[in-house]
Amino acid sequence: MLFKYTVSTKEGELKKGEVDAPNREEVINKFLVEDYLIISLKEAKKKIDLIIYLEKIGDLDKIYFFKNLSLMLKAGLPVPEIIDTLSEMVKSARFKKVLIDIKKRTESGSSLYNAFSFYPEIFSPLILGLIKLGEETGQLEESSEHLHSLLLSRYEFKKEVRSALLYPSTVIILAIGVFISIFLFLLPRLTKLFTSLSVKPPLITRIMIGSFDFFQKNLFYIFAILGISILVYVLLYRNKKIKRFFQGLDLSLPVIGRILKKINLSYFSKNLGLLLKSGMPAERAFLLNMEITENEAYKEIVGFVLEGIRKGNTIASTLSKFPRMFTKEFTKTVESGERSGNLSESLSYLSSFYEKEVERETKDLTISLEPMLLIFVGLVVAFIAIAIISPIYQYVTALDNVG
User: Fold this and answer.
1) Domains and their CATH numbers in the chain
2) With a threshold of 0.85, does the pTM exceed it?
């Protein structure tokens, strides 16, 4: 079987390639013997496992897992016993299956990092890196607690942003639902009624009837074009250059772009601060940060910073070359942290600062959108009401004149 891999050496060098092996386990054992940190490992062709592919392990599952792992490590319980207990506690069938396998591996003498490495699609490079570091330094309990704090903070941050966007999203969805219902159920009957009347409908009614006719006659083509456009977008988005173009376009948007930049700055500083606080060397910390950064533009910059560190440059000096992506305040705070030797604390402060900024700006955006959405929906409803009432009023007036 052919496997595609991305690994990191002890020196922080990133290696990518393909290897042919009878099974996944042999590849992982090979990398573990060479003391490589496995970033990703994927089979070129996989057998479909319904449990693995149909069920997603949520953020809360991992949050509770690492919190309980930390508490049980504090109590001095052996790792296999801890994993066995946690496998009985989790609700996810997929996670339970994974933990049972991890328990068997730890019972046979495998380290927790080695056992986790068999599931890089579940345990991210950041998780694997911190678990490996915790075992090497004898601080697995602290690493587990760090992971719990990080995952919990991310989860709460996402929840705040989603809750702020809930109202406008609900209004938009309900409005779309109402308009579709009108087009599918109300307009067909009204169209028959209006065409049967002896008077010519007003312009606003003719516009509404024309729109309905166009939509009805071209319904298949409209949905076909929409489906093809989404498919093409998804396929193109897999290309790194095209993905970077779209993400760069998002970042250049007036309000949304500013919020997205602050989200990326928050994630960057939180991840890097946690890795450095845990005692990880700067090179490997930046390498892991680069691998887990989703935005291609920021991923590229992290790569430049990594190269700068290897050349002996400071982090702030490299970040200052990208003022559009990293604000002056961000760079100056990083520079202050490097000079004082408290870089992890400076990054933690930056992470909290930008999280609060994102929450504030998201709420402000929601507040400004609310009246605009209500006005838009009101105008559309008024347009439909006038278009329906006008010909009926015109017809009644004509009957009165005849009488």
Assistant:
1) 1-47 (3.10.20), 166-403 (1.20.81.30)
2) no
